[in-house]
Amino acid sequence: MIQSFADWLVYTVMGCDEVSAWGTALNFFVYDSVKILLLLFLISTIMGVINAYFPIERLKNFLVSHRLYGLQYLLAAVFGAITPFCSCSSIPLFIGFVKGGIPLGVTLAFLITSPLVNEVAVAMFLGSFGWQATLIYLVSGILLGCLGGIVLGSMRLESYLSDWVKQVQAQSDRQSAVWEKDSTTFFRRFPAIVGDAWQIVRGVLAYVMIGIGIGALMHGFVPEDFFAQYMSRDNWFAVPLSVLLAVPMYANAASVVPVVEVLVAKGIPMGTAIAFMMAVVGLSLPEATLLKKVMTWQLITIFFSTVTLFIILSGYMFNLLLG
User: Fold this and answer.
1) Could you report the per-residue pLDDT of 207-233, keeping only the tens digit for each?
2) Three-class SS state of 26
3) What are the angstrom distances between the C-alpha of 91 and each of 23, 30, 71, 168?
4) Domain boundaries, the chain
5) Contacting residues for 196 by C-beta, under 8 A, at least 6 apart
6) Are 298 and 244 in contact (CB under 8 A)?
7) What is the pLDDT of residues 159-215, one digit of tens each?
8) How far apart are CA 213 and CA 311, in angstroms?
């Protein structure tokens, strides 16, 4: 429905050409803006209901328990793999997790895996490259999320969350404490929950618009062949170069799989092409812009650097296993 609305508004009402760069960019901007804002409002509302009616402290204590032996990172990564979100669409759920007090390393495991792996991309990968490449791609995506979450979680980076997030967390904790002693019915609480969700949307609105605007321009105006000509060079630096060149692009995994198929057909090694795909969907300028509302630049730099390193290592591993 959102895509139909974007098509109608941009191509029918505004009269843009469907194959033009501006038409493609504007359609992308309208679609992603509506989708992400609706997701953010919906998830913030759901997290508000959970915070009001469920013992969030028990969940937090459960997730930080040593008895899980790191299983919480695997659960977060698997949950990320089964949610069909791109990097920017994952951020509303990430904000909801942080607001609910879920440990930062666990939320980052979700944020890493969610854009990298989803069921549509897996199905397309299976049809294009066979079960061996698909299995390696699936397992490596989940492992990347787990290892990234564990490494980032061990750094104790909570102090690098933005002041806005800390205020939201404190307000959520205070509201939860009040509601635990309150017997008000759900229908009386719900307007306050919706109001809090709307405040969160208002707080990140400018960042969402700027981030999606950057992504739309990249989506409409940056040609794929520009990157392919550099990735096709036969040298040891091709994998890290492909990751760095992918950052300006912005797309979800399902839309990049056909691009990977074209790159492989042109003779680019499978590992290099998949590293490019993971960087496109897991690292992007729009994502960094959106994350600026919830993270300081120090944390964004640490997060991107860690994920970049793991993607590069994955690319080399793919080339060894599938070469």
Assistant:
1) 567 666 766 776 666 665 655 566 655
2) helix
3) 26, 18, 22, 15
4) 2-322
5) 44, 48, 171, 175
6) no
7) 888 887 777 666 665 555 555 555 566 677 778 778 877 876 776 677 567 666 766
8) 26
